[in-house]
Protein 1
Amino acid sequence: MEEKLTLFKNRKRFGIEKNIDIIFKNTALVLSSFVAIILLGIILVVFFQSFESFSRYGLKFLVTSEWNPVKDEYGAFTAIYGTLVTSFLSLLITIPLGVGTAIFITEDFVPKVFREIIGSFVELLAAIPSVVLGLWAIFVMEPFFRAFFVFLHNFFGWIPLFSTEPSGRNSLLAILILVVMLLPIVTSIARDSLNQVPKKLRNAAYGIGASRWKTIFSVILPAALSGIMAGVLLALGRAMGETMAVTMIIGNSNAFSWSLLSPGYTISSMLANQFGEADGSQVSSLFYAAFVLMILSLLVNIFAQWLVKKFSLKY
Amino acid sequence: MIKTNKKIAKNIILSLENVSISYGTFEAVRNVFCNFKKGDITSLIGPSGCGKSTVLRSLNRMNDLIPNCSLKGTVLFDGTNIYDKRVDPVEVRRRIGMVFQQPNPFPKSIYENIAFGARINGFTGDMDELVESSLRKAALWDECKDKLNDSGYSLSGGQQQRLCIARTIAIEPEIILMDEPCSALDPISTLKIEETMHDLKKNYTIIIVTHNMQQALRVSDMTAFFNAIEYEDGDGGKVGYLAEFNSTKKIFNSPKEKITQEYISGKFG
Amino acid sequence: MNSLYYQKRLSRNIGDKFFTSLSVICALIAILPLIFLVTYILYKGGSQITPELFTLEPNPPGDDLDAGGINPALVGTLIITTIASIIAIPVGVGGGIYLAEYSRGGAFSRFIKFGVNVLAGVPSIIAGVFIYALIVSTKILFGSMYSGLAGGMALSILMLPSVIKTTDEGLKLVPNELRYASLGVGASMYTTILKVTLPSAFRSIATGVVLGIARAAGETAPLIFTALFSYYYITGFGDLFYEMGSLAVLIYNFALEPYDAQNKLAWAASFILVLSILSVNIFSRILAAFTEKTKRV
């Protein structure tokens, strides 16, 4: 604008505008590096806070299950086992359900309108806060499954996973509520990956007389596999870090048991439950547990990203 | 009368009787009658939007994949209306194979690309031999015999298309449908595919859609010219119909219809 | 010659039928509980809604007759999410601008993008733990420990990756021609971004950001030991430095109470939370569909 007043005598930009440009760029640069600073900050803070506990218990912390603030003895095995077992088992249930649902809404079994309604409904459910799911789990899911758990114990009690009398809140309920949380994630990512498989591959298979499911299993699923895998890993990360719904339904007990029908613990539910009122070396041990959780979810996440990068753009 | 019909019927492998195809409420092709002779190469030509590809895809029920696509009339193959409710479209596609406009090999090795179709069709013989003979028939063997385990995508576009032809041959269909197989290819690859088609003629019936009239003239025995006219009710939409069907020689040298004459002389399209 | 007719007994047809039914069953198992969940929350929570709910303080558990209202939690959620937005939106939009407009895919921007994805995957409770260590236990905010401000900071960590991502993706959708047009008449980079690119990506960025805020409003884990909880009305600016209630933490605390009156309050709070989150989501979906339609015409 000012340039016009000078009648183009000086086409060079005024110094002040040049400076604004540079300041603007550098502000954006600094703001973008905040992400890295926060991430690094989280890792360092959690690591240093857990240092006391780490130097006292070392790696023994990971394999002992004593958690006794009175005696000042800490080991997180129960919580680590709980974290792994709830997240993996819930994923094991979710994968077939989610992928099956994704296939249902990408094939033409029902008219497109219905499929789109189902698809967006599933996505909407991902938006429901986990604390609300926890509330629902306590008052609706637990009574609903009570009889089934008794049945499980009576008939499959010889399997260690069902070897105890079912308690009101237990790991199996946590697994089931995790399934409800993970289903939308797995379903929508699987659907997107299936939709991205080029149509010409389906044509190719149909054109040489492959049946629908032969086509799905031998051509479409393999082509969508990396995307589905990445979605599954993201869901795994979410399951390991999920706090509220699990804390509300898992029973929060540090007594170790193989059985899913007895109360359990996960790292995040332990943090939610104890952090507020902990002091002394208990705090450091909780930070140690948080550090373990963070490393687990970092590994899963990085692996997922690597997978996406490695296998995307193949076709 | 009946006798002659039977005599013709003996050589007819596929016949369309009063076929109309619609996408939803939009009618794409109307009232097509057409007989395809065994062992012939038949070209379907015509301006874009005349429904020639739609007709081709209806011949092995690939149109089933398009939502809302419906067909009226009968398509007789081997004495059966393939649109009969009792017919299994998978079975139809096993006997009427298809090569598509874009080369579409599977993301598998060259060998697997051919073996896959044969296996799902229940092939129990020597797979290596089948792969070799199919690749030979598609004139691709010499170029890829040393890299059968490479991905199908490592081949050039023309080679990929010939791989797709080999894949179709491997399931031993009676008819091969080709939907503008050379439109994505360079002239040299096109020539090679045309040579391949000549060789295949001995054993297969081929029906090909092409927008290239020279190609139709070079490869085919019979030519069907499709055209599109505006609806009578005149809302601007067009519907395709079969304008003329005759031997390629006659179509290009002495067409009966004026519109055919205009099209082949390049006045429109 | 084998017949063209469909044969039921064929193993391939049996297999196809079997797997088709299996996928239908999967879809049913997946969808039915979800439908039940939503209707139950809306029904059970909706039946607890009264006008007093919005104006009263909750009564401390123990009095089973009257639980009071959720006013402090409602206001607290609004305040905490506002604080989180005030922090996360400028930082996130700025970072997104850098990634989309300035970076040329070098090592730094790839590292930042990687960081964004990793941060998005950090469990939400870890954000709470981090702010606890950094702000709460050090009493760095004028000597206050648990506070609404700390809660807002913890939430902002969770919002940040999604804001950066939506900004980055929104800006990348702006056609380069538009940038060239502006730069081509001699506009400087910042004018181009502020006057041309950002405005044309505004709607998609705003949608993404609003969805991020909606999600943050339901987050509980980062708040339970940063903002903690409070039963009392929020009356002034100074209350930012004290414990602050929120709908999410109220649901958590009152769900675990043995008293029916408190449980009902938790359902009522769930109703409000779910209804507002779902309506934001549905509204943005409709908006997006509408935008797409008008663009195509």
Protein 2
Amino acid sequence: MTSIGTGYDLQNSVFSPDGRNFQVEYAVKAVENGGTCIGIRCKDGVVLAVEKIINSKLLKPGANKKIATVDRNVGIVSSGLIPDGRHFVSRARDEAASWRSTYKAPIPLAALAGRLGGYVQAYTLYSSVRPFGVTAIVGGWDSEGELGVDGQVGTGPTVGAGGKIAGTKAGGPALYMIEPSGSYWGYYGAATGKGRQTAKSELEKLDLSSGSLSLEAGVKEAARIIYVAHEDSKDKEFELEMSWISSMDGPTKGRHQEVPKDILEEAERLAKKAMEGDDEEETTAPEGETMEE
Amino acid sequence: MASLLSSNPTLASNPSYSFSQAPQNAAAGNREHAFYPYTDNGGSTLGITGNDFAILAGDTRSTSGYSINTRYSPKVFRIGGDDETGEGAHIILSVVGYAADGTALKERLNAIVKMYKYQHGKRMSVKACAQRLATILYGKRFFPYYVTAILGGLDEDGKGALYSYDPVGSYEREQCRAAGAAASLIMPFLDNQVNFKNQYSPGSGVGHDLEARQVTPLPFHEVEQLVRDAFTSATERHIEVGDGLQMLVITKDGIEEKYFPLKRD
Amino acid sequence: MNHLPQAWGRPRDNVYGTYDASYLQPRLPQTHTQSPIVTGTSVLAVKFKDGIVIAADNLASYGSLARFTDVKRLRPFNSRSIVGIGGDVSDMQYLDRLLNSLDVTENYSSTGHSLNAKNLHTYLSKVMYKRRSDINPLWNQMLVAGLDGNDEPFLSSVDLLGTTFSSPTLATGFGAHLAQPLLRKLSDDESKVADFTREKAVEAVRECMKVLFYRDARSLDRYSIAVVTKESGVELKEDEHLEGQSWAFAETIRGYGRTQEV
């Protein structure tokens, strides 16, 4: 950063002569040190996973959740400043509720991502605020089934005006990542936080764009990727937290939920096994550190 | 104010109000109501005190017009207790009239008595609670809690204390009080049996020479029987009274609850 | 001295002239719902040994017009409670959305325990009492059926005035007059609930729906019925049809314009 020290990094919303907002770039730094988060968009659902570094043995295992639910069908996980992440989630919930009160239906993921992007972006515009110190991954499932509007009491006409069109396709999985600048993109696989480079290269190997990866397989891959990405900071213990959203006929029925304990443990077991396999191939020195909670 | 006056030639050229209670808008016509925010859920309550106890009782019927909503809807409550069960309470309250207001009033008083304990580290006296209840009721003077309340407990000397209220908070300490649908049936009976009204010492004379029978606090078992008789009779004569009789008895040992069936017709 | 307290402290008319209130806009009083428009009729519910059965027909009337015949008036809240709503249908829809948003926000805290039927009833009764106190009522009577905090059957009522009560059998509207006496014959005390089976309870409710269809002119022969138990949660059927109707008695009715044999 050549312009450091020239004063253009001391105030938010001010451009440097070469067109950068340094406060936003510093916010990205805060994210880069956060626990690794990933999201995978599978053919029949979305999985979110986060590496929670255990800073103290006095923390209760399984408490202090990092993945939050928004409305019923959306999950958000973020890297960076945890309180900023909480505020971000709170805003997402308000946006979802406000959408519902207007349209009497759940907010589509694309709309939610758009509103959140706009919200985060606004924090780059004023000198009185600082940008969000988080990069958030927003995953969800837009219902593919026909949902009535909220409060609907009847089924409505079957034919004619207001009747249903058979065979229309709607909904499906969605995954977005929103950065401190407010920019957001839709992804097949998203990663942020300390281990993002490793995680991204692992995600790229999965051929997600073909839409062939199932949710069940996605859960296992997500767990493995978090474990792989943790390799660079293996001196620290961590806990794996995962959530998923399936299609309406899948295990979560279109809702965002924690991955059940048995499935999570199985995925972790396979992840550890895969890691051991890698160790034998790549390094000869067995590592004494074990990856347990 | 100046701008208001300058925009109004009539007021600007004439002296205006010098106080802040000027009418803000012209008097509206009579308001027509299709929604009436009150109802009467029937039932009756009754409280009697003795030397070292107070009883509050109420029937458990709840009505809407000629219909019985339920046969078990308590009208007598513990105030200032620890949890839902009311364990540890030292005050009792009965409410009769519009049941939703009764519930709201009960919950407010209960919260206040508990807050008093948390903030001052001691129980609220029945006397203080009685005054506070009057203040709550009067606070809604212009949209009253449509209930007749009776508050019971033991006073500073350990004597039974009973306070009766009207819906807007007028109150007094009494020996006994009946309230609700059958108040007019029960109260004269109480006057005679508790305060010995129209009872005279036999052979004390005629006319002005008659000596009124001395009023003495009644023992518990007699009072309990009076309460039961009062409600049995009220059940016979009033259609909104019946189903069950719930009683809370407060003594130095705490609060005891009793329940007796009444006729369900 | 003016002896009218109303005049004390005010400028004297004989000195200053009468007050000219002409600039004050005569403001009409603010009005809210004065009567329901599209309405649903009775809701019935009965407690049995290990659960509750609740029913309501699928009709929404516009005055005496049977306007909507596919209206679901039993609204499940979560896996262990359901609300049956009578009265104004638009207010019912508002309540449904309110409960929906409550359910969404409740799930944000992942503490593992969710609102039970008793909590739900308390919530609804506060909503209803607040609205009546604002003289802006939600024109409904509701039965909340489900399981309480101890997974015991729970049944309670709340109406537009915020009045609440609970009983082993409950019925709103016309049902309070026609069905409640029949249901009380079967189970009129909390002690009787223990020997009241699910089959008997469902049968009794279905029979009452029939009685209501015979005698309530604002009722329908299509109805919804739900059973809530600890084992199976909420089992809701929304397109039931009254069976075994007999209109033979109608032949014997005299009056209402029918005066001679056909």
